[in-house]
Design goal:
Ribosomal Protein S5, domain 2; single chain; 3 domains; alpha+beta; Butyryl-CoA Dehydrogenase, subunit A, domain 3
């Protein structure tokens, strides 16, 4: 099954360990790029989360945002450094004795001193599993969304491929008519110029013309590329780059078909093929 690189997922959970919200969004990218944004208290989980995301996503730019609020039961309480505060008070008394009219020291002045207030370390063993479970759930929802959009893209590709087969079939059926029309034109030229009709010369001109407009090789390659695109779509997996390469090859053959065209119908078919290929190429940029 193919996947789109564009998707979004959001999960949340809460309990005695706290509450967390995980948001993941992905967009198309040539390679895989992972951005993880965590609160300062959970930066230790960044490497693990990156590996989890890389396990699910093989291509695309992925941004993961995690918001975490600890509960009162996690042990994240404020602690006063009494030892440091005692030294500060004694230092204040000593300095006050050197001054004639010292200003009183406010309690908040002591609390603002670096290191007086400390936040107890979070119990990571209590919250790590919950956060990673939340991440896994969000990634599963992200992949489901990518696969759902991938299926829609697949149907779009198959419709365009069917339309391309119709156009190539038209060109194949029209080639004998082109040769017949050219034969009639050459005979008419002989007649208008009042020249003696030379069947050998006529056949030589027709052979040269047939060689000039011969597009059988281009049509065969178009059919081969179309079959390969179908095979890749059926196979699924990480196929974006392969499809992108095949779109380039399809466009090249359609371009050559147009350059060899000597009639309106073939030119019209070439233009229609290039329109269909361009529509697929734009969407292929979103395929993982």
């Amino acid at each position: 099954m193919i996947q789109s690189m564009t998707a979004f997922a959001r999960t949340q959970n809460q309990g005695k360990w706290g509450s967390a919200v995980c948001e993941i969004r992905s967009i198309n990218h040539r390679y895989v790029e992972i951005i993880v944004r965590l609160p300062d208290t959970l930066h230790i989980l960044e490497t693990v989360m990156r590996e989890r995301i890389r396990h699910y996503v093989k291509r695309g730019k992925v941004e993961c945002y995690l918001r975490y609020q600890p509960s009162d039961e996690t042990g994240a309480e404020i602690i006063i450094n009494s030892h440091l505060a005692d030294h500060l008070c004694k230092a204040n008394e000593k300095i006050a004795g050197l001054l004639r009219d010292p200003a009183p020291v406010d309690t908040m002045d002591i609390l603002r001193w670096p290191g007086i207030l400390q936040i107890a370390e979070l119990d990571f063993e209590l919250i790590e599993d919950k956060v990673l479970q939340l991440l896994d759930k969000a990634l599963q929802e992200l992949i489901t969304a990518r696969e759902r959009e991938g299926q829609e893209l697949k149907q779009l590709f198959l419709q365009r491929l069917d339309a391309m087969k119709v156009e190539t079939a038209k060109v194949k059926q029209h080639i004998p008519d082109i040769l017949h029309q050219q034969r009639e034109r050459l005979i008419q030229r002989f007649t208008d110029a009042k020249l003696e009709f030379d069947s050998n010369r006529l056949e030589q001109e027709l052979v040269l013309f047939a060689q000039k407009i011969d597009v059988s090789e281009e049509l065969e390659r178009l059919d081969a590329h179309i079959s390969e695109v179908r095979r890749i779509l059926k196979q699924g997996g990480v196929v974006g780059r392969r499809l992108d390469f095949l779109m380039q090859e399809l466009h090249r053959e359609a371009n050559t078909l147009g350059s060899k065209s000597t009639d309106v119908d073939t030119t019209r078919a070439s233009v229609e093929l290039k329109v269909l290929i361009e529509q697929m190429r734009e969407q292929v940029q979103n395929v993982e």
